[in-house]
TrEMBL record:
UniProt entry keywords in alphabetical sequence: Differentiation, Disulfide bond, Glycoprotein, Membrane, Neurogenesis, Repeat, Transmembrane, Transmembrane helix
GO cellular component, one term: plasma membrane
InterPro entries: Plexin_repeat, PSI, Sema5A/B-like_TSP-1, Semap_dom, Semap_dom_sf, Semaphorin, TSP1_rpt, TSP1_rpt_sf
Membrane topology, from the record: Single-pass membrane protein
Domain Sema: 1-285
Listed GO MF terms: chemorepellent activity; semaphorin receptor binding
Major subcellular location class: membrane
Transmembrane segments: 718-743
Name of the protein: Sema domain-containing protein
GO biological process, alphabetically ordered: axon guidance; neural crest cell migration; positive regulation of cell migration; semaphorin-plexin signaling pathway
Species, as recorded: Alosa alosa
Localization per record: Membrane
Length: 829
């Protein structure tokens, strides 16, 4: 037979098809595929179809040559029923049961939509019925798809006679074969709902096994997924068993995913073969030994298994001792939410193995066991214990992860943190190497958090030499403040010394020359001279000052022969005076009566106050006063600060509130707000982060006293005062402007701003006097412009606008416009 194909470059025959499977049934070959639907005129979608051709098709003659003449296709429907059905459009896999004339199909949603999958089954009779029905035909690309009757409703691949050019051709018309190939009706599944449906997963392959149960045959479906699992489910139209999952087998290690590419059943070996990318797995169809008790055996609802009462175990019907003693209870879906803890199976025999620690492989012996007796399910606990044992091999030691860093050894200043690890992950065994590296690490910390500097005085120096050898002196000693200059107390200390009285020292000054002081009547003269005697208790005689004055007087006669006679007067008491002197030898006079100014001096600093904060940065202070001595009588005041402050407790707080911020500006509601922050986080602080208070009363508001204090009707606010001021200013400006305009008009009248009317009946007398009494009306300048229309002013004029007995020496002819102007209007009052 010649090779045949569908019409080339005709998307109505096939449009981007993806073939899934093909089966030969009688005289027909059924091809299952999915393609882009040409009859769907609202966007783009994919439909699943089954195409049918006759096996004896030889193509056409002249028309449709080398092309199928029996090609027909119909849409497969697999959906969830409802007012708005949910369709599974894309066919992924099929399985044909010839004994049942059933074709199972795996359907999924489109690749760009939410993942969902379903399994539907179709009868061959339903497929044949659709192919015997009407076609859908489109006359041209602009027309709609319409249903047209099938000219051969029961076509069975019959052929025409052997003679003639059309010998061996099918009896179908070539014209019909060229345009009629899409069936109008949709092939429906055996049930209105899918046999199995699951969201958030995509099925990939499907095989079905027919199992003989105690009372009936069961169709057991094995469905492969893209995650690498195999779902075992029942296919039945019984509502109580509809969509039953028997189990889901995970074939790959945890965390690994790989799609199932192929599934095949080998009945002779009672096994299921699973094809992956790089390997093939073999799984037994029945695993009745996984159910150790009667309850778990019957509760699994597995068609392969039943409880053998005689052998007291779960077995297949073929392995049972007697059919009468073998029971099965498949009346409902298995209880999938039964919790079952996992249990280890027996250890496998010891086998040689290698242990690779990354630096070399060592020969060992190993054995394995699996957590499958039973396997944990429905949240059951996993097996607790090792799944592999290794013996007779060395094992190198390995470090555990580093422990967290310990707390810093200091709260301020340079410290260190420590972390450790141990060589027991694993510990070296059987001659294995110990761990290489440090088991302890240290690092610096708090290197940017200096401690507050300790403030202390040094020891006192030795006392200095006494300032005086007698009469009372002082000696001093000093000390200095370490690590700063903020130590409490004074750096200087004084102590009295040499308090014993000094010896008395006396000293006389030399005599002064004789000086005449008096002349008598007889011509004799009186002369005097002086000296001072000083005495004091002083350690140094050179510090002696002048004291009492001693005066000597002598009388000298005028004859020039008689010697002068001397009188000695030392003190008022007359001691050492051979002759008594009359009068006081000492005279005193006040001078500089003003009080001496006293310059102020600082007292010693007081002790430092307590720190204002225990952490986070506070301050303390100390004070001194200008009272040592206080300034008096216009003396200079003390120069310098009377208060000193210094930072303290600058280390960060472990947690708690900070200080309140300053009060913010008043808002529209008359409130002030201030805030504070939590140093360590909101969880460690108790209280509010903000605080508010009413604003203090404003002094700018002026209130007028009234009988009711709660009423504000009689008060003036700041807004009223501002408004009054602005209004007064605007009024003053307008009044000034009016006065200015008035003065301008009075002193400099415009010739075009007035129309003059004589007050007499005769407007213009023949003989004009020098002064003619007139009256005028002030008008707008625009009223007398020549290019405007004639202005009409109503009469009579108001009295307030008329000015009488006004004299102008200028004749009327002075004005720029003529009295005969058509735009002149006279107004008589």
């Amino acid at each position: 037979m010649p090779p045949l194909r569908t019409a080339q470059y005709n998307s109505k025959w096939l449009n981007e098809p993806h073939f899934v499977s093909a089966y030969e049934v009688g005289r027909f070959t059924y091809v299952f595929l999915r393609e882009t639907a040409v009859e769907y005129d609202c966007g783009k979608t994919v439909f699943s179809r089954v195409a049918r051709v006759c096996q004896n098709d030889v193509g056409g003659r002249f028309l449709l040559e080398d092309t199928w003449t029996t090609f027909m296709k119909a849409r497969l429907n697999c959906s969830r029923s409802g007012d708005v059905p949910f369709y599974y459009h894309e066919l992924q896999s099929t399985f044909f049961l010839p004994e049942q004339d059933l074709i199972y199909g795996v359907f999924t949603t489109n690749v760009n939509s939410i993942a969902a999958s379903a399994v539907c089954a179709f009868n061959l009779s339903a497929i044949a019925q659709v192919f015997n029905g009407p076609f859908r035909y489109q006359e041209n690309p602009r027309s709609s798809w319409l249903s047209t009757p099938n000219p051969m409703p029961n076509f069975q691949c019959g052929t025409v006679g052997d003679s003639g050019p059309a010998g061996n051709m099918t009896e179908r018309s070539l014209q019909d074969a060229q345009r009629l190939f899409l069936m109008a009706e949709v092939i429906q599944p055996v049930a209105t709902e899918p046999l199995v449906a699951q969201d958030n997963v995509r099925f990939s392959k499907l095989v079905v096994d027919i199992v003989q149960g105690r009372d009936t045959l069961y169709h057991v479906m094995y469905i492969g997924t893209e995650h690498g699992t195999v779902i075992k489910a029942l296919s039945t139209t019984n509502k109580s068993l509809h969509g039953c999952y028997l189990e889901e087998m995970e074939l790959l290690p945890p965390g690994q995913r790989e799609p199932i590419l192929n599934l095949q059943i080998l009945h002779s070996d009672r096994s299921l073969f699973v094809g992956l990318n790089s390997r093939v797995l073999k799984i037994p169809l029945e695993r009745c030994s996984n159910y150790p008790t009667r309850q778990t055996c019957l509760g699994a609802r597995d068609p392969y298994c039943g409880w053998d009462h005689q052998q007291k175990r779960c077995s297949t019907i073929e392995d049972s001792a007697s059919m009468a003693q073998w029971t099965q209870n498949i009346t409902e879906c298995p209880m999938r939410n039964l919790t079952q803890d996992g249990g280890f199976g027996p250890w496998a025999p010891w086998q040689p193995c290698t242990h690779d620690d990354g630096e070399g492989a060592n020969a060992c012996v190993c054995r394995l066991r699996s957590c499958d007796s039973p396997a944990p399910q429905c949240g059951g606990a996993k097996c607790n214990g090792p799944t592999i044992e290794v013996a007779n091999c060395s094992r190198n030691g390995g470090w555990t992860p580093w422990s967290p860093w310990t707390q810093c050894s200091t709260s301020c200043g340079m410290g260190f943190e420590v972390r450790q690890r141990s060589c027991n992950n694993p510990a070296p065994r059987h001659g294995g190497r110990v761990c290489v590296g440090q088991a302890r690490e240290e690092r610096l910390c708090n290197d940017k958090t200096p401690c507050p500097v300790a403030v202390s005085w040094t020891t006192w120096n030795s006392w200095s030499k006494c300032s005086s050898v007698c009469g009372g002196g002082v000696h001093s000693r000093v000390r200095s403040c370490e690590n700063g200059n903020n130590c409490p107390g004074c750096p200087l200390e004084y102590k009295a010394c040499n308090l014993e009285a000094c010896p008395e020292v006396r000293r006389n000054t030399p005599w002064s020359p004789w000086l005449p002081v008096n002349v008598t009547q007889g011509g004799a003269r009186q002369e005097q001279r002086w000296r001072y005697t000083c005495r004091a208790f002083l350690p140094n005689p050179h510090e002696l000052q002048l004291g009492k004055r001693k005066t000597e007087t002598r009388l000298c006669p005028n004859d020039g022969i008689t010697p002068c006679e001397t009188d000695v007067c030392a003190t008022p008491e007359g001691r050492n005076a051979p002759y008594a002197c009359s009068g006081s030898p000492v005279e005193y006079q006040d001078c500089n009566p003003q009080t001496c100014p006293v310059k102020g001096a600082w007292s010693c600093w007081s002790s430092w106050s307590e720190c204002s904060a225990s952490c986070g940065g506070g301050h303390y202070q100390r004070t001194r006063t200008c009272t040592n001595p206080a300034p008096k009588h216009s003396g200079d005041i003390c120069i310098g600060l009377h208060t000193e402050e210094a930072l303290c407790n600058t280390q960060e707080c472990e947690g708690g509130w900070g200080v309140w911020a300053e009060w913010a500006e008043c808002d529209e509601d008359g409130l002030q707000v201030r805030a504070r922050t939590c140093a360590a986080g909101p969880a460690t602080c108790v209280g509010n982060t903000t605080e508010q208070r009413a604003c203090p009363p404003q002094e700018s508001t002026v209130l007028q006293p009234g009988s009711d204090r709660s009423s504000r009707c009689a008060g003036f606010s700041l807004f009223h005062l501002v408004l009054t001021g602005v209004g007064g200013f605007v009024g003053a400006v307008l009044l000034s402007l009016l006065v200015y305009l008035y003065l301008q008009k009075v002193h400099r009248p415009s010739q075009e701003s007035a129309v003059i009317h004589p007050s007499t009946p005769n407007h213009l007398p023949p003989n004009n006097d020098k002064y003619t009494p007139m009256e005028f009306k002030t008008l707008n300048k625009s009223s007398i412009l020549p290019d405007e229309g004639c202005n009409f002013f109503p009469s009579p004029l108001q009295q307030t606008n008329v000015y009488a007995t006004t004299y102008y020496p200028t004749p009327l002819g002075k004005y720029d416009f003529s009295l005969d102007s058509p735009c002149r209007n006279y107004m008589h009052s």
